[in-house]
TrEMBL record, chains A, B:
Protein name, entry field: DNA binding protein putative transcriptional regulator
Source species of the chain: Halococcus salifodinae DSM 8989
Gene3D superfamilies: Tetracycline Repressor, domain 2 (1.10.357.10)
PROSITE patterns found in the cross-reference section: HTH_TETR_2, PUA
InterPro entries tied to this protein: BetI_C, Homeodomain-like_sf, HTH-type_TetR-like_transc_reg, HTH_TetR, Tet_transcr_reg_TetR-rel_C_sf
Length: 210, 210
């Protein structure tokens, strides 16, 4: 976790990233123009072009910005109970509870699905997605390993379980977006928590259900 | 399962669907032109336009064709042991073992991810994806319910578990494609089978691991 320090961004770059988030929610990835981003803050298109040569550069920087935001919150939780940490991570990734509201979170994830679909054709996206995935994977696996060390979780393979958790979360998002059906994420969340309680949490320890 | 009869397609339409599959593998969704499809079989573009007005129509028909292919194989398995049926479905969806070879399966899934990302903007795709999802969901839930009825599986909520399974499979595919990392599907498969054995299969019954 230690080798991913928040990138050193200027205030303008931070403003561009926040504007990119809003523009992605509003217009989606395919219709994300520099004008659409410039419209979301009080600078001109020239400022965008000064900082980022191409849309691909800007989007790759934006993916890094998402990682920094995730990492900033993951750090806060670091000394909490592993059960709570795991549940917090799953909740955030499945429902974006840190986002202003859930509906804008799904607008955003809809745009992100298009960016993901572009990764096989855009090395800069793939590299940054791999870095983000690696960080989240390490966070989940580390949380599971802590729980095992503390005797709260049964013996398990933290790496493999983290892969399962990230697959499940990503697929719930994808299916929810493709089908426009909130039941997908709701049911997946319930089943995942039931799974944690049945398989991961040692008999006698409290389950994950709040 | 009974209300999804294979669509009544002409030989030409079947040939167009097979050519679409090959063209998607080769060119991806963004570069899927009628010429690219026509190049994959011995007809002209005019034949394509005669059968399908637009690229969207053709792709929606193609999604239906995928459902028919899935349904044709799902029927064969219907009287097998629920453990085997579940494993067969998971294997097929995760590794495309019915496909000619696994590498072309991932080329195909890469193209399909782009089609999925388009679903929020193309009602015909979303509707057909919903029908396909519903059928696979029913197949998985029905298999789990059969296992429970036969006393092989523990008591569980088949619908919710099916949602979990489909989320997990879809996310493993998405992450594997985005990251270009076969370990994602391999580890997810192992963890899912471990999960089935730990949670679903009743003590004393044989597990799913072959």
């Amino acid at each position: 976790m230690s080798d991913t320090a928040p990138a050193d961004r200027s205030e303008t770059q931070e403003a561009i990233m926040a504007a990119t988030y809003r523009a992605l929610c509003k217009h989606g990835y395919a219709n994300l123009t520099t004008q659409a981003i410039a419209d979301e803050f009080d600078k001109t298109k020239a400022v965008l072009h000064y900082h980022y040569d191409t849309k691909d550069d800007l989007l790759a920087a934006f993916l890094e910005y998402l990682l920094d935001r995730f990492a900033a919150h993951a750090d806060v939780d670091h000394h909490e109970d592993p059960r709570k940490r795991l549940l917090t991570i799953v909740d955030r990734l499945l429902f974006g509870r840190d986002a202003d509201n859930e509906s804008s979170y799904w607008e955003f994830q809809t745009a992100m699905l298009a960016v993901r679909a572009q990764a096989p054709y855009t090395p800069a996206y793939r590299e940054q997605f791999a870095e983000n995935y690696g960080f989240v994977h390490e966070t989940v696996a580390g949380t599971i390993a802590d729980g095992i060390d503390q005797g709260i979780f049964r013996d398990a393979d933290p790496e493999r379980l983290a892969t399962l958790v990230l697959s499940t979360i990503q697929g719930a998002r994808t299916n929810r977006i493709v089908l426009d059906d909130p039941a997908v994420t709701k049911e997946t969340h319930e089943a995942l928590v039931t799974y944690f309680d049945a398989v991961l949490v040692r008999d006698g320890a409290d389950g994950l259900v709040e």
